[in-house]
Amino acid sequence: MARTGRAVVAHGQDFDVREYPVPDPAPNTVLLRQELAGICGTDLHNWQNGFNQEVLLGHENVGIIDAIGEGVKTDYVGNPIREGDRVILAPGTSYGAYGFQWNPDEAPHFRGGFADYIYLSYPNTCFIKTDASPAVAVMTEPFTIGVHAVMRGKVQIGDTVVVQGAGAIGLVTLVCAKISGAAKLIVVGGPARRLELAKRMGADVTIDIEEVTSVEERTELVKSQTPQGAGADIVFECAGFLPATPEGLGYVKSSGTFVEVGHFVDMGSIDFNINQLLMRKNIRVEAIWGSRPEHFVRGLPILEKNEFPFADMVSHELPLSRVRDGFDALNGTYRLGGDMVIKIAVSAAE
User: CA angle, 173 as apex, 169 and 178 as ends, to 5°?
Assistant: First the structure.
């Protein structure tokens, strides 16, 4: 009898768990048994807008090789693979992205991480074997966003860096800036538990937006922590909150750099004074779009060293049947079961 597996199908703001037949891997493909898939801010923002058709989500993935198609001998970097190996994958391919797939009822079905399986069916999919624990490995895709952002921002030894946002992307960007040579790291965000973890991950100063509610006061506090009160060398906007962009531009020193990281979903437009915030400050503005295999190759070894509390970022693991609870928590009080949420991962185990 053919195996079946479950996959979460999102539509509108609802979720269904459906059963589909599990495919045997064709030549040059790999079937993974999913372990964890993170709920990303991009997933959340798309869900807030409402999905206009059925979609398979889950692009922050770690799984165990269940079966290997003929012709597959190694992972992306040349490591030999076998059934039972743990792997991470880059969701983006030239054929589409795992975790952003429409038409779930079309075979091979398992094209997103909120499922029992994920079928690596697209040619040249980047997947890499890892010995990291599931809770660390599931952070690989968000970590690559931090890698990309910091490489684009060109952090140098001795820089003063501000990270706006203390969610997963803010925290990994913080780590990447630290290991790239930043001398002082300031995190502006919340809630408090996330800021506590930011300190453990290397933040020198944290500013809680729930306590310091004025943009002007936050800006003054940030600048007071920079050399000569001139502002930060580099600011990374990782909150994905529209007003954070003009606020962050106000943190940047003359001839500094601002890097937009948080807006992977169209959340609308803002007004800001181009003359005052850009031209007169002579600043460099960068923006990144996702990550590429290069960033996975660079980032995974850093995670595997486990020199930072990456696993503590995963505050909650939820079964497939409770995906909606995770989205509701991230959309509301950032609490689940009475505990503060940092990162929520979806598990195939019930």
Answer: 155
Structure tokens belonging to residue 169: 């992307």
* Phi and psi torsions of 119, nearest 5°: -100, 115
CATH topology of domain 4-132+306-347: Quinone Oxidoreductase; Chain A, domain 1 (3.90.180)
Q: What stretch(es) of the chain map to CATH 3.90.180.10?
A: 4-132+306-347
Measured between alpha carbons, how far is 17 from 25 in angstroms, rounded to an integer? 23
C-alpha angle with apex 307: 301 to 309, nearest 5 degrees?
A: 110
Tell whether the torsion through CA atoms of 223, 228, 231 and 235 is positive or negative.
negative
Asked if 106 and 18 touch (Cβ cutoff 8 Å), the reply is no
Q: What is the tens place of the pLDDT at every residue in 262-311?
A: 998 888 999 999 999 999 999 999 999 999 999 999 999 999 999 999 99
Instruction: Give the pLDDT confidence of 224-267 residue by residue, as tens digits.
Output: 999 999 999 999 999 999 999 999 999 999 999 999 999 988 88
Are 265 and 289 within 8 A, CB to CB?
A: no
Answering whether pTM is above 0.85, one says yes
**CA dihedral over 68, 72, 76, 77, signed as positive or negative:** positive
Cβ neighbors of 253 (< 8 A, separation 6 or more) are 226, 230, 231, 232, 233, 281
Q: Which CATH superfamily is domain 142-287 in?
A: NAD(P)-binding Rossmann-like Domain (3.40.50.720)
DSSP notation for 87-154: EEE--EEBTEETTEEE-TTSTT---SSSBSEEEE-STT--EEE--S-HHHHTTHHHHHHHHHHHHHHT
- Listed residue (164, 172, 114) closest to 344, CA to CA: 114
DSSP-assigned letter for residue 228 = G
CA torsion sign for 262, 205, 333, 322 is: positive
Instruction: Report the DSSP pairing between strands 232-237 and 51-57.
Output: unpaired
